[in-house]
Write a structure and sequence with these properties.
globular, homodimer
Chain lengths: 467, 467
Amino acid sequence: MDLTAFRAALGDIPVQDHPRIVQQKSRDHYWYSPRLKAELENVTAQLVVTPRTQDEVKIVLATAYKYGVPVTPRGAGTGNYGQAMPLSGGVMLELTSLDRVVSIKRDRVRAEAGIILEKLDEQTKAAVNGEMRFHPSTYRMATLGGFIAGGSGGVGSIRWGGLRAFGNLLALKVITCEAQPRVLELTGPDMLKVAHAYGTNGIIVEAEIPLCEAHDWVDVMVGFDSIQQACAFAEQAARQDGLLLKEISPVAAPLPYDWFNRHRPYIKNREQSVVLLMAAPPAVPALVDFIAFHKGDLLLRTDTLAEGERKKLPPIYELAWNHTTLRGLKIEPTITYLQTQYRDLAHVNWAIENFGEEVPMHLEMIRFDGQIVFAGLPIVRYTTEERLEEIIRIHEANGILVFNPHRYTLEEGGMKKTDRNQLDFKKQADPRGILNPGKMIAWDDPNFDFDIGRAWLFEGLKTLGAA
Amino acid sequence: MDLTAFRAALGDIPVQDHPRIVQQKSRDHYWYSPRLKAELENVTAQLVVTPRTQDEVKIVLATAYKYGVPVTPRGAGTGNYGQAMPLSGGVMLELTSLDRVVSIKRDRVRAEAGIILEKLDEQTKAAVNGEMRFHPSTYRMATLGGFIAGGSGGVGSIRWGGLRAFGNLLALKVITCEAQPRVLELTGPDMLKVAHAYGTNGIIVEAEIPLCEAHDWVDVMVGFDSIQQACAFAEQAARQDGLLLKEISPVAAPLPYDWFNRHRPYIKNREQSVVLLMAAPPAVPALVDFIAFHKGDLLLRTDTLAEGERKKLPPIYELAWNHTTLRGLKIEPTITYLQTQYRDLAHVNWAIENFGEEVPMHLEMIRFDGQIVFAGLPIVRYTTEERLEEIIRIHEANGILVFNPHRYTLEEGGMKKTDRNQLDFKKQADPRGILNPGKMIAWDDPNFDFDIGRAWLFEGLKTLGAA
């Protein structure tokens, strides 16, 4: 790597080398995991490059190829598996200046990768009353490209499944890292080569996604005496085909009272488990009836709240998904979490009973391959790495899928195995292997056993259901 | 019943008594069923009354109450279980002049009961780019009130479940049949008192329903060598959470070639089974990939068809749901059909193999209580009523639900049992029992066994999933 020559060749493309800024931009939310925190705390790039146009991205990649400089792309750095940690140093490719909306149609939008998700929705709502099908809980920070390269679903997955499910992405524009970088327009199954590949095999600079009708979503919080009741209610709410909900998340006591500080005034006591929901306005009356029918305690509905009260509250999705853990970490820095999937309520209840207060339950109801399932993000009151591994083993031995959020490689984390398409594409798109190095095991170890894994979260092609 | 006094008391409310017109308006599509055709062919009212306003409906009902005149409400008469057949004579209450749109908001519409569904959508599309969540295959003829009073779901049920599922109706305005008719605004679970009650316990004069985003739906037809392959493809397509489809219907060979005359040029041969689909424009590329992946034969997609060709074709939903049978009846008048529900593909395949050419398969993929299931409308090559009953018994003995479309009562048809709420409401709203007489067994036979039935299609409160 010849960083001096690399930098000189960039011309007036903005770079930053102030150590504190470089270190800050070399960080994502890897510190969610005590293991990753220890492993990655000394990782840093040497330079941050912030191209302003797609042509400048091409120049950066051609130059990096020429001088053998590792390139780790970065949106807002909100991933929490170390997706954007520059394991081999080199440069951070900051893409937040690529934030233009290319086109908005009634049913789709095309935009550059660096646009912040909330800003994207603001424009599509104004233009065609449309919004993204789903977004992560980091909606107000995360970028479109970062979500596609490093995320898998989120708020809205109860309706639309995962980001990689067929039909949820329309096109991705990718730039390769070669002597002469190519600009590729990927559509159909080809998109799965780079979606959720952490930028290891091409830089996503533009994406086209479908829109659905926008709603002024109403935040609803319901209390229950036990987490088991909350989970049972959540499953039944998810099954109501006519009830337009964007989010359904049960969280076990005492987390809501202890952690959701601005929502605490609405929670009766520490013993109350809650279900967090987002409902379209026409669904609210039916949801309220449904809550009464299930003897839930309607703690909060933002549509009838005084504006002053409402403005004090963060959106309820910022209590859900990875934000649940984030809020916990601020108050109890020693906790961590897992990512799991339970096929039915019996498995959820088994986990609740088996681990008790060591693993307080937090679920997200999602659609997965046409079925409603329980995605788990249970909190772990962490003691040792050995115990964490043991908890994972006990889950797996009882038929519960675990997607380990304490690993930074594609194979060991959410994907559970190497995607051969992604590996093959990396050979073409990144022949020197300098894009986000170290994240794809199979690249570094050609003898890696492709079949070691057991399951994918929001898998791609597999959901096509071929025989 | 004093019809002369009744008529005199109506003032200038339009009536018709020409025998041919009265007979024509005394008919629905009961002739789908050979049994109903024989039972009901001599049924007729004596008078047709066509109120122009809701106040006139009140006058008609007060007057009918006073003189004991049976009142059978009618929209477009497209029901095919005899829902709108005036079993006790009297008057047909034709509601098609109540066709005003009351209000359109971004996410909902309120309209009078007599508006034709297609006309309603035209207005909501123009105003807010919204459309009804679902509609019957008689979309271009049927009325809003008729659909709610006599229907249960249809095109769009793959996404939104049934009409009676929680959240699919927002409010119903109902007029009772009493000395002083009351105008009731029903919301929440109260709506289930009159939804799918055939107008036996109140006249629906206005409805408020949620809207979803409108699309220029693309009709797609896919060919397969066997109906089993078609059904397997249909199930997998339904499971694609990211693929926005409004209709998925497998139809067994040789029905498509023999019956879909204007689509015949696109079908390879008599041996080809097909799947009929409606896809939102952004879903079409992914659907085309998906079809190739499943080795389907893409026979038709209307988005790439020359306009002249496209205009020759009826919308594909007019090949589906009850229109499949309707088209068959025009060509093979001796056929009839069943309504079934199969819990999985194994049950579908069992039915296909067990009955062979006597019961050619026609399915509709739907969501039911949060799950994707197979709603069956299999064709029956009818021989005798005894054999038809035997076919039903064999289905039921093998764990397949049958909703008998050869019965005109609520209990014996789709509902499979008396809805106590509907019966109780009839006692209040129709104390003389003159609204659509003969359709609710429990009204005429108070000793009727409420628990005789086994299942409801698109059940109402039961899907609330209470313990």
